[in-house]
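Title: Comparing notes on inverse folding

I've been comparing how different people in this forum approach sequence design from structure. To keep things fair, I'm posting one structure and asking everyone to reply with a full sequence. Here's the target:
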């Protein structure tokens, strides 16, 4: 029992350290305006237990990763947790519709008592055999975090068996807010996906679009503009994305951030690791779109690209 309690305390400490790191965003517009003595305070403070806080980190993670259309998204939980994320977002796909299927381990009272690891492993193997996804994302929820299933080890073991990436998303609802879940998802992509493959070729004008989820198909109105300019969208994170394109997002020359609230930490990390510059832009409205295109061309500094943009 002492060993179990020690491990629980250690895991909770590590989790809190990771949460604080994700919440510490000194580059956002609000933090920049603060006094020097206050600039290191988190932008988003975790909610107090029991307070009304809106949706949970699990749903935030699902919102961010769900638009990866050729992946299977498996929720390790009682079946009730699975419904809400699929019903609340309208991210559209130009290809695979696998992401629209809701997969759940459907944990029961017996699993809560005796553990759900075997059920999770069986579910992963079944999905891989029947649907052949590009990857499987496995989401922890409140129940599985509380009973202490070793989901990470199960995912690594299953990935070795099936030869498909199985990515563990540690997003139990009691950690905090939906916004935190978005950030947890971005951190998982950086740790386990980005940089794991190479594109067939690169161009001087490769960009990533980060923070757009193609909720109403809006990305499809923007992509033709980049194509006409000769700017290649190497990766989309994650609207209408494919797993493979996220793997080689580290080869882009520029990150274009659409949702700064949840994506700044991600692009700052990519700048540190891969030297990718980022800018914050908006696709909404003619003036914003014009400014976005001009800013991208200005960053690349190519005379002919700037002329085409105008």
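Reply #1:
Here's my take.
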């Amino acid at each position: 029992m002492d060993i179990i309690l020690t491990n629980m305390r250690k895991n909770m400490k590590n989790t809190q350290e990771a949460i604080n790191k994700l919440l510490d965003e000194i580059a956002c517009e609000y933090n920049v305006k603060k006094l020097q003595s206050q600039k290191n305070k988190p932008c988003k403070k975790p909610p107090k237990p029991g307070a009304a806080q809106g949706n949970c980190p699990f749903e935030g993670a699902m919102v961010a990763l769900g638009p990866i259309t050729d992946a299977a998204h498996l929720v390790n939980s009682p079946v009730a947790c699975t419904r809400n994320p699929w019903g609340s977002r309208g991210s559209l796909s130009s290809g695979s519709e696998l992401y629209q299927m809701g997969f759940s381990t459907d944990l029961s009272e017996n699993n809560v008592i005796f553990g759900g690891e075997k059920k999770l492993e069986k579910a992963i193997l079944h999905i891989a055999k029947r649907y052949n996804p590009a990857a499987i994302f496995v989401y922890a929820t409140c129940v599985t975090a509380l009973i202490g299933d070793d989901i990470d080890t199960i995912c690594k073991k299953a990935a070795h068996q099936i030869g498909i990436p199985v990515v563990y998303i540690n997003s139990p609802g009691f950690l905090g807010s939906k916004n935190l879940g978005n950030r947890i998802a971005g951190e998982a992509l950086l740790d386990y996906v980005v940089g794991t493959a190479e594109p067939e070729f690169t161009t001087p004008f490769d960009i990533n679009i980060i923070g757009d989820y193609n909720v109403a198909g809006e990305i499809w109105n923007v992509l033709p503009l980049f194509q006409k300019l000769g700017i290649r969208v190497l990766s989309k994170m994650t609207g209408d994305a494919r797993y493979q394109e996220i793997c080689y997002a580290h080869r882009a020359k520029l990150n274009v951030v659409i949702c700064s609230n949840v994506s700044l930490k991600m692009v700052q990390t990519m700048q540190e690791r891969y030297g990718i510059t980022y800018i914050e832009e908006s696709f909404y409205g003619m003036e914003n779109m014009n400014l976005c295109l001009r800013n991208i061309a200005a960053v690349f500094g190519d005379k002919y690209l700037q002329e085409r943009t105008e």
